[in-house]
Amino acid sequence: MSILGIGSRIKHAKFGIGVVTNVTSKDYWVTFIENGLETIPVESEFEIIEAVEDEVDTVSFYEVERTLKNILQKWSDVSQVVPIADKWKGGKLILEPGTPTSNKVIPIDTFFHKITMVRDRLRVMEQKINASKLDEVDKVDLQQYITRIYGSLTTFNVLFKSSNDYFVGEKSK
To answer: Cα–Cα distance between 167 and 173 in angstroms, integer?
Structure first.
């Protein structure tokens, strides 16, 4: 059985006569004359009045959205949402100077957001280095430098909820 294209006309036992207005891999969205918009499974029983053959894109909106998010995360400096460890939520970072002046208090969520932005921008920099026309020796030197930066930031790993989001520096051999 081939999939009907948008614009196909059908007659359904329950809903009556209608026109296919959208198609997914599992369902037809049909606007019926007397019953309005209904979603019916592709494999359901109905009479085909007029079939429109069309190349139907059966990719779901979820799949398109997920793919777009992956592309944006890979090629831009748009940060993904990285959760802070539960124990730090609502906390504050207090910077206490060595001389008698007032402390600086920063909401830890704000500080965490800035740390994740640094991490994400380092990742973008890595991608740009890899895609650049630099010779391989220069690329490796810059990659090693970035790895050492990650290593310097491992102190902040305690803030991350998931170890998958940690900064990872050079592994000991």
So the answer is: 18
The tens digit of pLDDT for each residue in 38-95 reads 899 999 999 999 888 765 555 555 566 667 666 666 656 555 678 888 899 999 999 9
Rounded CA-CA distance 152/168 in Å is 9
Q: Got the DSSP string for 26-58?
A: SEEEEEETTTEEEEEETTS--EEEE--------
User: Could you tell me which residues are beta bridge partners of residue 38?
Assistant: 30
Q: What is the pTM of this model?
A: 0.51
Could you tell me which residues are beta bridge partners of residue 48? Answer: 10
Residue 23 burial (C-beta neighbours within 10 Å; 0-12, 13-18, 19+): buried
The Cα 148–Cα 136 span in angstroms is 18
Neighbouring C-alpha atoms within 13 Å toward the C-beta of 84: 19
Instruction: Tell me the pLDDT tens digit for each residue of 137-168.
Output: 999 999 899 988 988 899 899 998 888 888 88
Q: Exposed, middle or buried: residue 84 (CB in 10 Å: 0-12, 13-18, 19+)?
A: buried
